Amino acid sequence: MKTAKIKVSGHGLFHKSGLTFSLYSCSEPMQSKRGSETGRTLQSNVLHSEAGRVFVSGDSYRKMHIYSLMISLILSVFFLYISESESVKTLKDLAVKSGGSLTIPCFYNGKYKSNPKYWCKGKYWSSCGIVARTNTRGRTLVTDYPTQNMFLVELNSLQESDSGDYWCAVEIGDKWTPDESDYLYLTVSADPAVSVINSRVSGQEEGSISVQCLYRTDYKNKQKQWCRFRDWSCLTSQNSAVQISDDGRGAVSVEMSGLKKSDAGWYWFSAGEVGVTVHLTVTERPTNTTRKSGTTLSGNTMFLWILLAAGLGLLVSVVTYLLRRMFNPAETRERISDTTVHTQSQDSKTYTKVKPNKRKPSSAAAQETDFIYVNVASASKNTTLPGTMQ
User: Fold this and answer.
1) Which CATH architecture fits 88-189?
2) Counting C-beta atoms within 10 Å of the first and last residue's C-beta, which end of the chain has fewer, N or C?
3) pLDDT tens digits along 151-178
């Protein structure tokens, strides 16, 4: 009986997630040796191996070859599908309150920086309809950030009718290669499974922020997580930088302290499998130069206020001094003690004497001079007052 001998060797076809998958390929059949391999030759339809070699009949070889090709083809398609699906990545289940807005980050492989991006709606990828493309305007906006290998889908004024299946997609532009995409489901309702008070928060370097998250009562026993898109890592309990507090009544507080610039970016809060996105902005802390400038400005301001107060004090002193000079009683008595009073009428001038009436002092310590005032009336040229000289 004619037998065939084939060599089977392993070849690595795929390397995915640390696993190597191998297929067996067959070499050309070779004639078996006569006589010297007694006991090592296969009878018809008998199969065994020795020293890495497998001996099969001709019919078995042909069938094995066909099966090998079929398995290779199936595995190639399967792993190609897995590889392509991971070229775009986003969350799988999101919730938002009706009437509100939601921003969805979609991350893609760096080789697609220059490719157009779009947002597609439909349960099946092959039949989904494009809702918005990169840089188009409308209720849905798609904005690409090539430096971050990410594009954002902004959904505004959402209604319950907007709930459904969606796809983040990257256009390849080759009719033989399908576009890259990743699937997610969006739920819009009056009472969403999860939500946040503020979807955009801001903090200062070395400072802290607090995010208030809410969940529906039927999600009370679901696992709560605070996750970061950058490395797809999640926290379910607190650590030195992040404190997660669940009050058990539908509210979770997430506090991040000791903020760094690298903490900025996109996060999500989830209860069970449902999530909602949050964006964190970290601003620079004021430098020492800025603080010194502020201190100098405060010192100059204080100095100006002191000068102003001193000037006002000096002005008040001068005005007070002048008023005292004008209304000093001693000066008034000096003016009254003048012995001559000039009175001028419209027709002529009339002069009179004011004689002091000296009294005897009532005591030796004080003397006072009294004056007798005479009313002077207007007179004509030829009129002479009694006691006056012409």
Assistant:
1) Sandwich (2.60)
2) C
3) 999 999 999 999 999 999 999 987 788 9
